[in-house]
Amino acid sequence: MNRAIHLSLFLTLSSLPALAQTPPAAQQQQDKPPSPTPASPLATAMAPADNRPAAEIAAERDLLMNQILEMIKGRESEPAESVFKNILMMKGAPAGRLVRMMNMGFARSLGVSCGHCHVPGEWEKEDKPQKQIAREMMAMSRTIGGEILPKIKNLRSEQPAVNCTTCHRGQLKPALDLGGPPPAAK
């Protein structure tokens, strides 16, 4: 099976700190060229084949999330597409919520950091196939949750849902084999 299909699920934020519109007060600050910081998390955001410990990846995600939230301070409640460039999914979601969903929902569910789907520092770019795969996986989950699950009789949930964690469980590749013998029947 194509490895790329399993590389990403739901990381659909198409841009992070590439702001679409800048408030006038912040325009003067933005006009200054950013000072390069080679050791910054933006420069070292993980590549898809990263094998770092989960705690290190989570710390990086949190750091990047906090940097982005600081960059959009005062605009967190605005629709994501008015704050970020190239938003194709989750239009209308508050920008701050979207950033948190990327970190705590999507990336955590796959055990990856931002650089898995995004080009660090150029978040709106479409250079990685994982970004489009994530969008399509999100559409798949919406179809399952909105059309298929409601048709299943006798489910014991008022609002059954699937999300990244349903399959990935914190791993890049979804669980396809539980391994070992099945539990003994009682």
> In terms of quaternary structure, what is this?
single chain
Rg over CA atoms:
18 Å
- N-C termini distance: 36 Å
Low-confidence stretches: 1-49
Number of helices: 7
Sheet having the most strands: none
Coarse shape: globular
Helix content: 40-55%
Kindly give the count of domains: 1
Q: Proportion of β residues?
A: under 5%
Question: What's the order of the H and E elements?
Answer: HHHHHHH
Mean pLDDT metric: 77
Total beta-strand segments: 0
State the secondary-structure class.
Answer: mainly alpha
Notes on the protein architecture:
The chain is mainly alpha-helical. The protein has one domain (3-21, 41-168). It is 40% helix and 0% strand. The chain is built from seven helices and no strands. The radius of gyration is 18 Å and the shape is globular. The protein starts with 23 loop residues before the first helix and ends in an 18-residue tail after the last helix.
